[in-house]
Write a structure and sequence with these properties.
The structure is a homotetramer of 341-residue chains.
Chain A (H helix, E strand, L loop, with lengths): L1 E4 L5 H13 L3 E6 L4 E6 L8 H4 L4 E5 L19 E3 L2 E3 L5 E5 L6 H12 L5 E3 L16 H15 L2 E5 L3 H10 L2 E4 L7 H8 L5 E4 L6 H13 L5 E5 L17 H8 L4 E3 L1 H5 L2 H14 L3 E5 L17 H25 L1
Parallel strand pairs in A: 7-8, 7-14, 8-9, 9-10, 10-11, 11-12, 12-13
Antiparallel strand pairs in A: 1-3, 1-4, 2-3, 5-6
Amino acid sequence: MLVVMRTQATEDQVRQVVDTIESMGLRAHPIPGAQRTAIGITGNTGAIDALTFELLPGVAEAIRVSKPYKLVSREVKPDRTIVKVGQVEIGGGDLVVIAGPCSVESREQTFAVANAIDRYGIKLFRGGAYKPRTSPYSFQGHAEEGLKILAEVRDVYSMAIVTEAIDNESLDLVEKYADMIQIGARNMQNFSLLRRAGQCRKPVMLKRGMSATLEEFLMAAEYIMAEGNYQVVLCERGIRTFTDYTRNTLDLSIIPAVQKLSHLPIIVDPSHGTGRREQVTPMSRAGIAVGADGVMVEVHCQPERALSDGPQALLPSMLGELVQQLKEIHQVVTNLAVSVR
Amino acid sequence: MLVVMRTQATEDQVRQVVDTIESMGLRAHPIPGAQRTAIGITGNTGAIDALTFELLPGVAEAIRVSKPYKLVSREVKPDRTIVKVGQVEIGGGDLVVIAGPCSVESREQTFAVANAIDRYGIKLFRGGAYKPRTSPYSFQGHAEEGLKILAEVRDVYSMAIVTEAIDNESLDLVEKYADMIQIGARNMQNFSLLRRAGQCRKPVMLKRGMSATLEEFLMAAEYIMAEGNYQVVLCERGIRTFTDYTRNTLDLSIIPAVQKLSHLPIIVDPSHGTGRREQVTPMSRAGIAVGADGVMVEVHCQPERALSDGPQALLPSMLGELVQQLKEIHQVVTNLAVSVR
Amino acid sequence: MLVVMRTQATEDQVRQVVDTIESMGLRAHPIPGAQRTAIGITGNTGAIDALTFELLPGVAEAIRVSKPYKLVSREVKPDRTIVKVGQVEIGGGDLVVIAGPCSVESREQTFAVANAIDRYGIKLFRGGAYKPRTSPYSFQGHAEEGLKILAEVRDVYSMAIVTEAIDNESLDLVEKYADMIQIGARNMQNFSLLRRAGQCRKPVMLKRGMSATLEEFLMAAEYIMAEGNYQVVLCERGIRTFTDYTRNTLDLSIIPAVQKLSHLPIIVDPSHGTGRREQVTPMSRAGIAVGADGVMVEVHCQPERALSDGPQALLPSMLGELVQQLKEIHQVVTNLAVSVR
Amino acid sequence: MLVVMRTQATEDQVRQVVDTIESMGLRAHPIPGAQRTAIGITGNTGAIDALTFELLPGVAEAIRVSKPYKLVSREVKPDRTIVKVGQVEIGGGDLVVIAGPCSVESREQTFAVANAIDRYGIKLFRGGAYKPRTSPYSFQGHAEEGLKILAEVRDVYSMAIVTEAIDNESLDLVEKYADMIQIGARNMQNFSLLRRAGQCRKPVMLKRGMSATLEEFLMAAEYIMAEGNYQVVLCERGIRTFTDYTRNTLDLSIIPAVQKLSHLPIIVDPSHGTGRREQVTPMSRAGIAVGADGVMVEVHCQPERALSDGPQALLPSMLGELVQQLKEIHQVVTNLAVSVR
């Protein structure tokens, strides 16, 4: 159920609706929009009578939500969400490029990458301090030491930090040191972790699971939002198919599908999505051309020595070229969007 | 084995190599390049001694081909192939847009589409006279009557005709009436049909099978080329995966993968690749952004009445918008290509 | 539409219904059952009035068929179909084992296999004279020479012959020499070939395409039956998935699904379904345990020298063990079936 | 590296090897076998000199392990592992049937199922107290209350309890109340949870992820074993493919593949693997026929009222039939195994 307030509804009227919802043992999610506020209701097991709310002052209407996802849904919030991370707005029409190494391997390596990409206007820096690895014997990240290095990068280069949390313990630390919490593909249905991320006050980047359907992906975001954290950015990073020339199959057609159903921003990760350096730039262009809000790419100064995922890392100079190409494609897409409207 | 001639080799020297190959019971495929001619050898079951050819006059070297595909391979022919259909060159750097209805349903419907899209500069018209349908009880196309309608469209609108052949009988007729023979996804490994297409003197558009690997796709093209028809254009049209919001998953990452391994042009069919009208334009943009040579899209004046695949057909006005958008994206990609070199 | 005759309906009454159907420009498919005859109607594009038939003498009722497949459907024919090939009945409760080499490589090799497996009671011999191969440069089969060798095997060992046809030309010859016509996975949607097989008077083994859904599989059988050939056996041979330890994923759950919807027999091909010798015996056991009507396996006396698919071929002695195991499993399943009823 | 002790090696000699390993900063995993003890070494980043160990008293040889998984590997431990849960041995040749409701919905419902299935000799009871659900608004399980109900079932019916843990917190409680800890498919690569399970002293049932390769599956088990818990049972529960008639595709060919590479027991879950009641019995038969150590199935007395996964639940009477059928199939497979050896 979604309670839509009138345009001129007062804060008191909104509060009264929230109180009414909570007095019924349910949960209220006020969603301020450009024109009016709506209040999502979750926690009900059966139907609720719309009249209960429509008779309250300031309420325009109370509507049943037809999708299994509610807070994620564009039905509930037609305006696209803008997620602010550091100085960057994701979802507001700007081209967003997140870059950095796969793993924080050392202070030297991390600063080398940060220094090399700073010149290309990168304002969001990625790098893993906790690495979910297929083998228990592979490098698993430097944990808090890694997070401290990332925090230093922020101070020196004024880049906001995006980094992955893999369990509740690491999430506490990521929340403390970083600007945006990444939930990785393998944890997309780690519902316990999603709930914990929903209790954070920092924005969350949620990567699509390797075999997640669209609905499962949106429902994972719903888990985060249902706990009260509405700052969620989705990320397509490739699905598992039978193909053999890329590590995964980057499924760009999910971008328009998500944008139709949800107000959340969505970006593309062509590094994991293809697993091959030479595919990163063309597939990034394709991602922006299809309408994604940005890309996240991996960069390493010496990919052949990387402790993880070297074959998919761009060299810093290739990032410069990538950014230039994306700007031009983004300009075309932006102009088209304007001329169409 | 590939016999590479010297730049200044004469036609007589080429002929002598061909004769030598044929005298060994093998097949020779002279492949003229921008700088020099190469001669592919097929039909050998064991290894051939390179010296047999390297001692002949005009021969630069004889090299073993490391891939299972030979004629298709960029090792054998580094220059990209340009396939000419009517006035259009596919693979030469121009933006190619093939458009038309899924099926030729009637003279009126076909001409209505042709007339409506003519204004957008379309020079290649598609339309099916033979329709491979899942059900034997569905509309199967008007066969030769349909081909005649298409031939009329060519005469009236100066558009070259691309249409599908589904067996040897229909291929005879398609070869007679059309300008380019399409082999559909379901027939990608109908090797008998591929061989027959290889004996045609008209260019062939080969669509990727729904679950074809890259190697299987290239090997299917090799079947056509091994018979002597080198005018082959590949077409990505979506693979079958677990996803549920598109009919197939358009796998754009095969474009750079094909371009790395093969000299053949490759285009994208986002109509079948997504099965949804609202995805066709964004995924077409993505296809051109990633570097495809063109797109093939379906258009219908009354999609809700279409006898096949109505939900994926664009309206003519949407095609106009699509072409405009693709031109701008193509311009960016072309400039990038120039500036990179 | 399906016209169901009364139990005591006469042949004349059946004929009158058929005549009525044909006079409407439609096609009649009389389907004799154990208790009564039903007459399927195909060719109609719109609805037909049931009363047209229910008023004819001998008609019990005329019912709308709810599935897109009709002749294939268990709605239309509740009794399971038994397909007779040589002395063997497929679908009638007997355990069916079809065995033989992947390819007919030579008279010697083929007879060596036939001789070696004869002792295990094999009554259906498989072997390819036309081989659909990924590469045009691979061994493609000995064509009519191969068929002649197979016909000799039949004469010498009293085994019926199952062999693949790949186009209309080869089908003419296969129909002439063999006892059962195989349509391979790559041709499952070669509708032209399916139609031609439907015009044969020999039984057809239809293999599931690598990415065929259940409906597509049944509709392919419908193509054959719609032409009048009702002797169709389905064969599951593995689907393409992301897995890496088998060549394909043998999808045994399609067996109960087919048996619920269709009256056609279905067997399993674990040789292609797994591509690995050591998997053939356990997966054959599983196929019979799940309820398949039989298995088709590849056998070679010297797999390491096979011209095709050696790694999946059983040695003759392994076939003996396989047959023994399947008999015991089959006995259990048969007893269960009896005790359940 | 694996250090294999001589048959007659003493405990002191084993201890000396362990001490040597640990003095190098590495981790020692003594693996007692039927004939001799082996000691796995993990934690090394580079190669270790075999001589370091081969010169120690009691050491037969030190061998390099060729697979990325070590403790899981049959190279390291050729004897199959037997995991004991309550009175039941999994992996020792007995037929194992785990049954119970999807969720513990109430004391009444849980006891009703336990009571109804007790007569069929079930000794392992399953039931979820923590339910990972796609939607945050679906029933999530009764948590500790549910675990208490399960513990009561154990006391009353002498069945050991298998139940899922979804995070570190729930694992603490599951470890306390249950006999076997289940890690679900969605958490197969929740490495933090795997590590925590590896620190338990209770056996673990590890379900295959929906898109996990064989190597990823075995590596997930390696995470658990690397922490010192060697009591791991694998469970195939279906992979995600394009098919539409089952919820997942139960991939039985992984059973022989696992048994070739690993000594760990493996069972099959046809309830989640197919998602359809009518498939559970035939696919269970197939699972036992292929050689699995057991099955895990869901049972509900009123499936139409189940709070989760009702459509796949067997009725208690169907379980009786299932057990009977599996016993007969298992008998055949056991006899075969004996006669083959």
